[in-house]
Amino acid sequence: MVSELGIGGHEYRRPLPTTLSKWGEMDMGKFASTQPMRNEIVKRAVEAGINYFDTTHMEEVMSLGNALKFLGIEREKIYIAAMIVFPFRKMGENPRSKWVDIIKDGMERILNALHTIYVDIFNLHFPENDYSREKFSVFMNIVAEAKKEGKVRWIGASSHEPRFLAELIRKYDCFDVIMVRYNYHLQEARDVLFPLCRAMEIGVVAMKPFCWPYYGIPFIKFGPVKGEEGSPYTPAQLCLKWILKSPEISTVVPSMNSLNELEENLDGISKEGKIDEKILSEYLNAATGPEAKEKLKKMMSDPNIDIRFFAERALSEMGAR
């Protein structure tokens, strides 16, 4: 059984001094210097009953592995999900003869960085990106072999395209778990995927609970909004509670960049109160209304490189429209 609240990793570097002058670049020395803070987050999370950890990029894998090793946490007490980023793209950039090695080598790097002999869930990352039946078959055969060897316990998929993922499930019935974007702004998965997963007994992990309606920007950046002052929940807590209303969801995996964020999320999960969708609707209106562009422009001077990057991208997309 997994905890309703898990920990995602894709954005946990945002407020940390880990990037250089450009989004996406990493200063590994600075990144390593922030490890003690992430050790504390993992320690408190496990103490509070969180047992699900999702990783995407290799620095996330390395950081989690180092934390678990430093803290001496028993491997059997937690569940770890991992993936090779854009595997089909990597396969497409290389000759067919190298495909098996690309996937197997990637899996071994992940296991070594985690200091473990197995991962609980190995996800196929973005199957919709550079998909082909041949690549899919090769990838799934390798992971199935790893499952027989005990290196993988369950096979999953992580996707931003619910309809594409639904078609794979209908055609191949090959996933034990899926991870999809699901939040107040992106609700398509509830109709397209959730009934299918319920019928086929596939676990559902909700990612990107806070970054809407613009990718990479927490919706809270567009507040405060009318009504939130009377809610028993903070906006972040309200969003998590709204997501977990869907019974198909096993766990939601927000990034947690500080102990304060962790405690806020934990408190929201345990708290009982009215879930007022109007507040989330107000946030969506604020983020897409006439004042949204000015707020995005202000984010261009945000101290966090990632926020500046995604604000610039959002403004560029607005200009294109």
Give a brief rundown of this model.
With 321 residues, the protein is of the alpha/beta class.
Protein architecture, described:
This protein has a single domain (28-320), classed as NADP-dependent oxidoreductase domain (TIM Barrel). It has 14 helices and seven strands. The chain has helices at 28-33, 35-47, 58-71, 87-92, 99-114, 133-148, 162-172, 188-192, 194-200, 235-243, 259-270, 277-288, 292-299, 305-320; strands at residues 52-54, 79-84, 119-125, 152-159, 177-181, 203-207, 249-252. Helix 3 links the parallel strand 1 (52-54) and strand 2 (79-84).
**Given this structure, which CATH class is correct?**
Alpha Beta
CATH superfamily: NADP-dependent oxidoreductase domain
Could you say how many structural domains there are in total? 1
What is the helical fraction, as a range of percent? 40-55%
SS-derived structural category: alpha/beta
Question: Averaging pLDDT over every residue, what do you get?
Answer: 93
Please tell me how large the radius of gyration is. Answer: 20 Å
The protein's oligomeric status is single chain
Could you outline the blueprint of secondary structure elements for this entry?
Elements: H1 28-33, H2 35-47, E1 52-54, H3 58-71, E2 79-84, H4 87-92, H5 99-114, E3 119-125, H6 133-148, E4 152-159, H7 162-172, E5 177-181, H8 188-192, H9 194-200, E6 203-207, H10 235-243, E7 249-252, H11 259-270, H12 277-288, H13 292-299, H14 305-320
Helix pairs in contact: 2-3, 5-6, 10-11, 13-14
Which structural traits does this protein have?
TIM Barrel, seven-stranded parallel β-sheet, 47% helix
